[in-house]
Amino acid sequence: MNIELLVGEIITLLIMAFALGMDAFSVGLGMGMIKLKLKQIFYIGVTIGVFHVWMPLVGMVIGKFLSHSLGIIATLIGGGLLIFLGIQMIYSSFKKEEEPLITPVGFGMFIFAISVSLDSFSVGLSLGIYGARTLLTVLLFGIVSMILTWTGLMVGKRFQGWVGKYSETLGGSILLAFGIKLIFPI
Predict the structure, then answer these.
(1) Alpha-carbon distance values, 17 to 28, 36, 48 (Å)
(2) Gap between the Cα atoms of 40 and 121, Å rounded
(3) What are the CB-based long-range contacts (under 8 Å, 24+) for 12-15?
(4) How many C-beta atoms lie closer than 10 Å to residue 15's C-beta?
(5) The model's pTM
(6) d(CA 124, CA 65)
(7) In this structure, are residues 175 and 79 in contact, taking their beta carbons and an 8 Å threshold?
(8) Of 123, 128, 150, 134, nearest to 29 (Cα)?
(9) Are 153 and 109 in contact (CB under 8 A)?
(10) Which position among 4, 8, 127, 150 has the lowest Cβ density within 10 Å, counted as fewest Cβ atoms?
(11) How far lies 104's CA from each of 31, 42, 51, 119, in Å?
């Protein structure tokens, strides 16, 4: 095992985990403006973290199957998905929706968790096609998204959401860049 390749993969996955977690951070900023107890914030972060483990895991399993079946076409599809997700995140960051449509309680928390982790399914699909290390990927995605969710909720409690739009734009830009890198390797 080449240690330099492993470190490079970890850094790449951490950057991608951060990009995906910025969506949860952004939504957490808005949700944090709802009066939530620290116990609720803890459970919301754990729930988002679990969803950011399971969604990319399912995507990676499907992506690995596609990779063996389709080869280079699957790599292009995976890169295209990342580009699409990045553009979609950048586009949605410019919308004027400041108020959350649902509250993160009960069934609303389930909807909230799915909404911020759907993009991690597609990224997992792309990473499965690319052949990333499954356990490393899903653990990093889960831990980073959980921490960013907690951070967003806590910051949202204290501020009026001025960071949210910019963080989602940054996350989308990172996904867009990785999609382009996947399609056009250097």
Answers:
(1) 16, 25, 13
(2) 25
(3) 12/178, 13/132, 13/136, 13/137, 13/140, 13/141, 14/140, 14/144, 15/174, 15/178
(4) 16
(5) 0.69
(6) 12
(7) no
(8) 150
(9) no
(10) 4
(11) 7, 12, 14, 19
Cα-Cα-Cα-Cα dihedral of 7, 89, 106, 45, to 10°? 30
Segment 5-49, tens digit of pLDDT: 888 888 988 998 998 888 788 777 767 767 778 898 899 999 999
The DSSP 8-state label assigned to residue 34 in this structure reads S
How far apart are alpha carbons 28 and 142 in whole angstroms?
Answer: 15
**Using CA atoms, how far apart are residues 169 and 176, in angstroms rounded to an integer?**
10
pLDDT at residue 30, as a whole number: 67
CB-based contact 183:177 (threshold 8 Å): no
